[in-house]
Amino acid sequence: MPLMPPAAKLPAASQVEVAVDFDSSIQSLSALDAAAYRLIGSATCQVERAGDRYICRLVSSGNPQKGAALSSDELKERFLYLVADENLRIRVAEKTDGVRNVILALAFGALATNQNNAG
After folding, report:
1. What is the pTM (predicted TM-score) of this model?
2. Which of 26, 72, 81, 97 has its C-alpha lying 20 to 30 A from 113's C-alpha?
3. 103 vs 56, 68, 94, 98, 111, CA distance in Å?
C-alpha cells in the first residue's frame, strides 16, 4: 500500500486586533453583547467597563468560518454595523412591546376558548 503524503498545512491567517469604545451612558451593554455574539466564527469580543466607557476588544479568528479574514478596519466596521443593528432591534422591541402583548393575549385567549369549547 503506497504511503500518503502528509496533508499540506495552510498558513494560519494572522489575527487582527482592534479596540472600539462606547460611552456607557448612551450605549447599552445588551446591544454590545448581542453584537459580540453575532461575530462568532469571524472574531471574538471582550467587553470591559472602564469608568464611563465600554471598551470592546475585538480579535479576528485565525481560521474564519465564513470567507476571508477581516482587516482591522473591516472588523471594526462589521462590529459597528452589528451594534447599530442591535440598537435598532432594541428600540423596535420597546416601541412594539404593547402591541405584541395585545396580540399574544388575544392569541392565547382564543386558544383557551377553543380548548374550553372542545372539552
Report:
1. 0.72
2. 97
3. 37, 43, 15, 9, 12
